[in-house]
Amino acid sequence: MPHNPGIPVSDANALPIAGSRVVGPIKSSTPIANSAATYAAPKSVGPIIIIPTGLPAGTTLVSATVKIKALFADVTTAVGFNYIFFDAAPTATPDNTSPAFVAADLAKALGFAAAAAVVGTTGTLIFWTLQVPRMNVDASGNIYLALNVSSTMVLASANCLSWEFNGLY
To answer: Which residues in the chain land under pLDDT 70?
Structure first.
């Protein structure tokens, strides 16, 4: 049965989700503040990323993804990311430092996962697709993302990464 584009679907199996509505795509207006540097695991890539969903406080995201994107030429060594989503602002972690989360961040953390790099078909783009856990947005309608490299990554250009959010609520 073909999909009706007016009905939201689950990313996992492309079946309609009753009562869900689409949010996104929301694209970063500024790049992730990364260095042109070598990142050794588990260094953070950029500071904590704040994703403004535009949704009312407490809205539940039932299915969502965040894509991290770059030009392949800007990523000298492409590796995977380890990532954590938070439902409230965690302790700040500066670019290219080891994560320094504290006990208070534990209740805000909603899951840890990994994403492999996928090179676009032309060899000029690279993507990492991050699965967002079912979660509520905070009082400002935001969710928070910490990116860490899984092994040594070399970025040839500063501020070369951007993000895009798509989801259902």
So the answer is: 1-19, 121-122
